[in-house]
Amino acid sequence: MIDYFISRMSGIRTRFSISDIDEFRADTQLKYRTDPAGIVHEAVGDGVLNLARDYDFTKGLTASQLKFTCTGPHMLTKVLTDRFYTDRGELCMAIAQVLRRQMERIGAEVIQIDEANISGHPEDREWALPAINHVLDGIRGKRGVHICFGNYGGQSVQKGFWKDLMPFMNGLHCDHLILEFARRGYDELDAFRELDPKIGLGLSVVDIKDNGIESPDLIASRIEHAQKILGPGRIPFVHPDCGFWMLQRSVADGKMRALVQGRNLFEGRK
């Protein structure tokens, strides 16, 4: 999610000194990481990053519609030590320019921008939002933004509330959000009555930090509960919380089957 992008962009070195590490550790917002992902030492450029090639490879593995994901500029900015730009906003926009050029070459039906740090730092909105929207405006297909509270070694690493992010989310140039609820619970759904009606809410209904496989009835009840609060037509997608990579394949497969069966049960399918 981070190193793949950072290691391929130009202007960022991934070998660093003790002083580089000390500077990074002084940032209290990133205590869950011991080292920076990289050091920005000159203008950030594409380097050898080639997401269109990655998309073409993945597209060849399926005949179905495809969603392509890309880590967002805010997340990447926050894990770097900057020794070139004047402020984080300038660095964030430089990264956004790289990512937009990449996104403009990808023909996926849906492109999802992943931002896993903004949840704990809504105060970054002023400089993060223009950069994220710059990337979103370069997407040809449906535009999604995933926000979560982190999943580092199976633990949430950000603290905060969805309601504090509402001004940020309402400012996004996206078609839908992809948000986590299953682990956190659904008590915060009321806040999404304030979400711009042009933006759909992707609802997570599967807890990936628990090995237990949800029943289709539970999945259906979670969707029904959310629809009662938000109204019909506000939930275009259901999905898991993020982080299936930590689970055994059999558990992940079972959870995905339950998700589909629960969605079908909610919609009245057999």
The Rg value, from CA coordinates, equals 19 Å
Residue stretches low in confidence (pLDDT < 50, at least 5 long) are none
Taken from the alpha-carbon principal axes, the silhouette is globular
Q: Mind summarizing the main beta sheet? A: 6 strands, parallel
Termini separation (Å)? Answer: 37 Å
Kindly report the average pLDDT value.
92
Helical amount among residues, as a percent range?
25-40%
Number of E-state strands: 9
How many helices? The count is: 9
Structural class, by secondary structure, is alpha/beta
Order of helices and strands: HEHEHEHEHEHEHEEHEH
Name the strands of the widest sheet in spatial order: 3-5-6-7-8-9
Beta-strand residue percentage:
15-25%
Structure description:
The protein is α/β, with parallel strands linked by helices and about 270 residues long. About 35% of the residues lie in helices and about 15% in strands. It has nine helices and nine strands. It has helices at about 5, 20-25, 50-60, 75-80, 90-105, 125-135, 165-170, 215-230, 250-265, and strands spanning about 10-15, 40-45, 65-70, 80, 110-115, 140-145, 175-180, 200-205, 240. It has a six-stranded parallel sheet with strand order 3-5-6-7-8-9. The protein has a three-stranded mixed sheet with strand order 1-2-4. Strand 8 (about 200-205), helix 8 (about 215-230) and strand 9 (about 240) form a beta-alpha-beta unit. Helix 5 packs parallel to helix 6 and helix 8 crosses helix 9 (about 250-265).
Quickly list its features.
alpha/beta; 270 residues; globular; three-stranded mixed beta sheet; six-stranded parallel beta sheet; 17% strand; 9 strands
